[in-house]
């Protein structure tokens, strides 16, 4: 399957080179495009210096807009599937092959790179939030997703088209739940997740709590009026 890794990047100069070079080394069968989301640091300069395939957004538009930009690119270029892939080094490209194989075998629409297919969730505030989202997804869709907040997801060609043409589709659990309720086939594959290699996550404790609450409310109520 012709696969494109979409790598949204905002101020990732400390990790973008390592992330891309590891992707090239461990998953040479995957093309990639970096969506530079109006970075104010040296991310853009590094991508140009190394000749990386890049879409350069002039201002910071956020993850959803950056990801949809990548989906529009994938749709126009005729890719069979796309991979949502973090620029911060947390996703292990060695796991991509098993995700692509699973999509080919199962004909699923979305493959989630999950931390919790064979491993148990650790006891923490963030994992409690993840468990709550899992419960709400199961309540509203009838299907169990062990790792709904995983940012490593593989999308089929039909999903590429939907994301490319819909203005309000973001790479978040509420959209995944919405798609599941409308017939999308979603499955999970065990992957390795690592700590961020450089920089800081925008999700501190307060923002993480706000994100969890907003996601739960969206799945329970807002998505029914979408």
UniProtKB/TrEMBL annotation:
SUPFAM superfamilies the UniProt entry points to: Nucleotide-diphospho-sugar transferases
Keywords from the UniProt entry: Transferase
Domain of life: Bacteria
InterPro entries the UniProt entry points to: Glyco_trans_2-like, Glycosyltransferase_2, Nucleotide-diphossugar_trans
Coiled-coil zones: none
Domain Glycosyltransferase 2-like: 6-161
GO MF annotation: an example: transferase activity
Keyword Amino-acid biosynthesis: no
Keyword NADP included in the entry's annotation: no
Signal peptide start-end: none
One of the Pfam families matching this protein, by short name: Glycos_transf_2
CDD domains tied to this protein: DPM_DPG-synthase_like
Family the UniProt entry places it in: Belongs to the glycosyltransferase 2 family.
Database matches in PANTHER family: RFBJ PROTEIN (PTHR48090:SF7), UNDECAPRENYL-PHOSPHATE 4-DEOXY-4-FORMAMIDO-L-ARABINOSE TRANSFERASE-RELATED (PTHR48090)
Protein name as annotated: Glycosyltransferase family 2 protein
Organism encoding this protein: Gordonibacter massiliensis (ex Traore et al. 2017)
């Amino acid at each position: 399957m012709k696969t494109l890794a979409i790598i949204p990047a905002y101020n990732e100069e400390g990790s973008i080179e390592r992330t891309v070079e590891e992707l090239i080394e461990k998953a040479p069968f995957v093309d990639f495009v970096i969506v530079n989301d109006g970075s104010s640091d040296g991310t853009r300069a590094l991508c140009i210096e190394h000749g990386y395939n890049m879409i350069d957004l002039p201002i910071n538009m956020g993850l959803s807009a950056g990801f949809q930009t990548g989906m529009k690119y994938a749709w126009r270029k005729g890719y069979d599937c796309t991979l949502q892939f973090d620029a911060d080094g947390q996703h292990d490209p060695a796991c991509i092959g098993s995700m692509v194989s699973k999509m080919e075998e199962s004909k699923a629409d979305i493959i989630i790179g999950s931390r919790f297919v064979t491993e148990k969730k650790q006891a923490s505030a963030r994992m409690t939030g993840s468990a709550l989202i899992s419960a709400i997804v199961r309540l509203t869709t009838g299907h169990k997703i062990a790792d709904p907040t995983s940012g490593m997801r593989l999308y089929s060609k039909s999903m590429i088209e939907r994301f490319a043409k819909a203005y309000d589709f973001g790479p978040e659990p509420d959209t995944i739940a919405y798609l599941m309720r409308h017939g999308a086939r979603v499955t999970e594959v065990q992957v390795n997740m690592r700590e961020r290699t450089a920089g800081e996550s925008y999700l501190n404790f307060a923002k993480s709590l706000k994100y969890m609450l907003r996601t739960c409310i969206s799945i329970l109520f807002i998505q029914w009026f979408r």
